[in-house]
Amino acid sequence: MYIDLLIKIKNAERSGKRSLKTRYSRMDYAVLEELKRYGFVKKMDIKGRPPKKIIEVSFSKDRPIEGIKFLSRPSVRRYGGYKKFKPVKSGHGIMMVSTPKGIMSGVRAKKNKLGGQTLFEIW
């Protein structure tokens, strides 16, 4: 799940590692693609074949993850319309939203006028 992935990335970055290997899931890969778009992740590669498919993630030195705030959890899901999406940390962070058109940042969701489940904020 994306929560475990983000905690692994944050801990690996703080311990000085340059990359990380984790199990593949479509949701994790979609979150990583969006993080790559905003510079939090440098590159990711899918290796192996099912059921042992893994993602190798390389971190970006330019923009380390400083903090994460999880808005939705498996027990409590939070939903919002695009009008409620506000800038994170005065524009220095992003919010991730799961929309009917896939996982995207709050900025992209607002531009496309899409609401959905608010997953997390990262800065």
UniProtKB/TrEMBL annotation:
Gene Ontology CC: cytoplasm; ribonucleoprotein complex; ribosome
Listed InterPro entries: Ribosomal_uS8, Ribosomal_uS8_sf
Superkingdom: Bacteria
GO terms under biological process: translation
Keywords, alphabetical: Ribonucleoprotein, Ribosomal protein
Family, as annotated: Belongs to the universal ribosomal protein uS8 family.
Descriptive protein name: Small ribosomal subunit protein uS8
Organism: Candidatus Jorgensenbacteria bacterium GW2011_GWA2_45_9
